[in-house]
Batch of 2 targets.
Target 1
Amino acid sequence: MEPLTSFFAVSVILLGIGIYGLTTKRNAIRILFSVELIYNAANLNIIAFARLRNPPIVTGQVLVLFTIALAAMEASVGLAIIMLVSRLNVDIDLRKLTRLRG
Amino acid sequence: MGNPIIDLLTSTYFLEIAVFPGLLSIAILGALLGWMERKLTARVQLRVGPLYASPAGGILQMFADIIKLLFKELTIPDGADRFFFIMSPVTALIIGAALLGLIPFAPGIQIANIEVGLPVFLAIVTLSPTIVLLAGWSANSKFPFIGGLRALFQQTAYEIPLWLSTLGVVIVTGTLSLTGIIEYQQNSGWLIVPQLLGAFLFLVTSTAEMERLPFDLPEAESEIMMGWQAEYPGPLFMLAQGPAFVKLYAFSALFTTIYLGGYLGPAPIPPIVWFFLKTILIITLIMLFRSTFPRVRLDQLLRQGWTTLLTLSIANIIIAYFLVVGIPAI
Amino acid sequence: MTDLTFLALATVTVASSILALEARDLVYGAAALGIAFLGMAGLFFLLDASYVAAFQIAVYIGAVVVLILFTVMLVGPQLGEPPLELKRLSLLAAILLSLLLGTAGAVSSASAFPGPDNCGSGCDLVGLSNALINQYGVQLEFLSLVLAAAVIGALTLAKTETKAE
């Protein structure tokens, strides 16, 4: 069994990549990618921490199942918005998307 | 002694992956299934079918076809995305072969005996619309893209009734492991009897997942000329045709496992023979669909999938619930 | 054995998630994201959470990645992302942050978290389903309500557009 620290390290690196994407990308779809990566990092962390207890608990897996479902909803609504915006505005650059500004 | 390469090559695990039930047997059986389909369709239509490739009724026809396709020129269309164009059929073939690693062919003959065999099988199946969509997109041509989009709509819509129809089996047996499902059937009889509706739904939805007639809209050769495979040159076309037969084999094997008792059968005949007898029966049944039913339209397909099949599979879950709990006395 | 598998899976996951953000073509990015999700499912398998891994493959790759690919193909290529002034700075910041967090975690744990070798009842499928239905049944119901709301919302967003045309 690989020590759990390695899993935490992967999770932290993924979180870093996700934050990097959130801060530097302008395309809405790329930002969605970053959010999904952060979700995944959190999921890995939760499952690894559920293994940390002795004996391990099953609640972590339940929580991750919920998170995966929520992430799928978030992606579906987000992509519907992106599709709508791209039809109205032709550009999905989030820094140019200022239609709601008064 | 001690040569690690020879040890690896003769180990049971390697033989299971490479020869049986792994890659080599999948390739040969896939080719034989191609021959069987052509011969069967020909017999239904009162034709002769493949005849010349060997003394035994042209049984080597598909191998001859494979050799012919291999020597064709490998052309890649202008403007195609080369990476996905080449990788998609290869990946689809790997995914199809991975499905067979989960099937218990006989006691002990199974590559991966995991606790969640059934969901993993279905999860691997859900990878295939992505691959088909990428293949259709990569060709940079109209018909392949239409075929890829059709495959996306059809396969994602039919995944849901597929999962729900197998849920009935899970509720009755109380396990997600394919070996566990067979062990349950050893004690209580084949599951097709209590789960007849589920078996029917599984057969219909898996036919749609395999993109076979009457649900072969993504490749409908008379409408969009082989759909997502239209632009593929000879050798890649052969690779792109492969997954269809491998998936046919895998889904029939899964049907045999979860509804027909898998390798179970009376003693004198060994379990593996029972398994293949039942699997070939199911394959023949699915092949007869091809020569019996006309192709459905896309709107009919989607409406049936989202309404009728979904409702029936939920009804099947209710049936399974009452099978476990018992019918309440009113 | 596990070490090698873990290393391979971790490398694939991290490399393809970087590729997902940095690939010039969004279709390649989405495919790389799919491979990252596959690698994550493999890591879940290593942690004995095999049901979650199957769920991850089915939902993330079977639904989310396909949806992203579909949107990308419909929206069309969005090339020409000009490099931001801030870009290199925040890249540096993100890497520094993650390394700092990682080393802090490793140091504070001293000899690493070994974790029990045998997961036993904690990763049991029966235990998982019991907890899901008996302990968290209400939450599950709310989740399905939220799911229905999300589906209706997404459909509405897509539908009004076709009416306006």
Note: Chain A touches chain C through 74 residues (CB under 8 Å).
Target 2
Amino acid sequence: MKSIRWFVAGFVVMMLFGWVIFPAILYTHEEQPLQFSHKVHSGETVGLPCQDCHRLSADGRFEGVPAIAKCAECHAEAIGSTADERLLVEEYVKKGREIPWLVYARGPQNASFPHASHLIGAGLACERCHGSQGTAESLPAFRRNRISGESQAIWGTSIAGFKMAEWDGMKMDDCARCHRERGVANTCLKCHK
Amino acid sequence: MNSSISRRDLLRFAGGGVLGLLLSPLPWKVLDDSAIWTQNWPWIPEPSRGPITWSASTCSLCGAGCGVRVRSSNGHPVSLAGQAGHPMSAGTLCATGLLAHHLACHPSRVLQPIRITNGTERTAADMATIVAAIHAAHSASTSASPAIAVIDSRPGRAASRLLMELAHQWPSAAYGVAPQAGRARTDLIRKHFRTAVPEFAADIQHARLIVSFGAPLVDGWGTAATARTLLAETSAHPRPRLIQIEPVRSRTANVAETWIPVTPGTEHVCALAIAQAIIEGRRMKSAVRARAEDAAALAAFLHDLDLPPAVRRCGISDARILEIARSLSDEPASVVVASPAAPEEVQSAVLLLNLVAGTFFREGGLRPLPEIPGAARTTDARTLEDFDDHSLSVIILDESAAGADIPAAVFGQKLKPGSGIVVSLSPFAAPRPVPIQYVIPAAVWGERLTDVAGTSPAGEISVGLAMPVMPARPDTFDTAAFLGAVTGTSQPSTEEILRQRIAAIWSGRRGMVYDPSSPTLRPVHAFGGTDALWSVLQSGGCWIDGPRPAGSMPAFRFLPAGLAEHLTKRVAATKAATAPALALVITSDPLRRDQAFDATLMSKVRDESGLYLPCGSVAIHPTTAEAHNVGVGDDATLSINGTTLPVHIACDSSVPPGLVSAMDGDGPVALAQSKISDRSVGSVASATSAPSVIPVTLWKA
């Protein structure tokens, strides 16, 4: 019985380490330069559609995170009295500095993702890949994989790689699966630069 | 109760821990993340983030002039594709061209002048030292023969004119060209005609029947568009009938309608037998007979050769030879081609067959190549072999465009013993057996503006511009800048000399221009002037010579001086040859021919695909292996004329029994090639299985 106890103890300790402690130490916790509420901007308070800030340019190029000039259209002066609002106006808008956002969905450098083909061509909703990000009250901490350097959003929230939701994870497998389901070509150069 | 922890407990704990670890995501996640980490070494170039843009250009890696669509991220090319409507390439690109943008980061890339000693040791060199060495050779030259050879790896470029001018400016220097694939064949063709004839190209695009003697038609013989012409079947363009006569089942033989295995070394007999069948079957066209000065003499010559005993050695039945003869005479758009590496008697016999079948000056046959407007005439320029032995103090080798394929032994033969140096202008310094002392860094494709003069599968010539699509490395040179540094004079810029070429095209008002923005072909005279032409070519278009009449056949001789004697001797040798235990066939890997210009990713894909026999291996049929008591993967020694090479034995059922197939390339076989003659006798000795020695006769395919 004693022999099994030691074996089980080793088993449990390493299972705990692998499933609980390892994920906690694998990813960094990096705070965004300032807080931003998608809920306020896209909800009833302001009511902006996603495309107002994250828009496709005339040539079909996705402009991604908006430049500070876009923020300045409304925030030339502070709206409200929060610390983040002050920081936005004083440090970024007035100084014309871009905000060094940590982009959760930024994929590896060797692949490209044309938003135009996915939004217009395939008719996918933003939520298909970004989940409820567009209605979140605050920005969660950015979690960077200490080994690969990629955002946790690429691998997904489950350390085992299980998909917890349709939007969870943007690995090559996820892209390939979606392409396969929709009968879209899965050749290397379709995505890889 | 004993609470002490024994060693056994610890082992149990560790055992449980290992099992627990394996059932947790830790090892698998670490493995996955580490794999990603290893893709992001600091020295691996990172594709830039930024706007994705498309531009059009022309590939300049070879003379085909394929149209390229460049996809760039933040102004840096990230992928290449063919231009769908391009008249030279019809949307295709070869494996190397698809990854041309990787060449800027090639492991053999040089970015500063280097000195190479003992073949492999590289040290940084000073440009001033190299220039001083060239000047010293120039000023010390007193003899009447040139002391400096300026060798152009890709004649026909606008920059070729600059190299010629340098040779004119310096009395001690002479311009030369690297051996061109079609040069020897052109010389052989000219012997048949009393009047001057231009170069000829096979009109593959319009041919309905192609008889190929080992020509790697779909494997690097022409352009990617040539392969497409042969492989793709469309309602507008049905596939031509291809008869491949070759000892081994090559990739071209695989896609041919008919593959006829032939005994190595008897291809010329086969070609002569087909020619004889046409003549004796009274199938020679009257137009050919009318222009030939010695039709009767040819018939008598072929009769006197007494071919049947030699034909039996070919391994081809008389019925098959008659069938090919009938097809060639019945099909007006037919052509016979030979591998550029085939020996002279095969080339001569194939030309003779083309003359008998009347394929010259015919659509779908052999058509004359017109000259490119504004190009310096280089068809009569000498090659490095033509210079006097041990006469050169300096060989300046312009390898900024791939193309130089000069046997290593020639350098040693032409340089002054002990003091001669070779200076190469090249983007790469891959180890190779050429005794180059200095390498001046050149730009790779996409870094600097250059031009490409190509030939289409229809034998049409074209001119395109390879545009800069990425920032040029500051310390690299193009031909103009290099010559400026050598002569210390101001040379016209590449753009200036290219504009002169475009002006010559405009003033000639000849041909058509492909505009990728439309995409259409418009006649040159429809453009407003040189600037409009320049603008279209800059945006990835190309000038292509317009449709032209095939021309008329001038008077010719079937048997120019010396040909009858040469062929008689070779046919007699074939009859007298005793059958070797095995014939060694060395085939060349077209993508390995110039390793430096080989994209590393594509080399890896190709090497791991198993499509090509790796260098350092020889392949034999399983029954041959069994008969000679050798096994798969055996280490063996290939000995040819005293040159001993370690090789591995691979069994391949596509190699006919009785043959040993080896791949030419950058491996030991390539080194051996420089030391062996056409028909060397050697052996393959297996060291792994029971010792056995297989005598072989080398045959260069």
Note: DSSP finds ten helices and no strands in chain A.
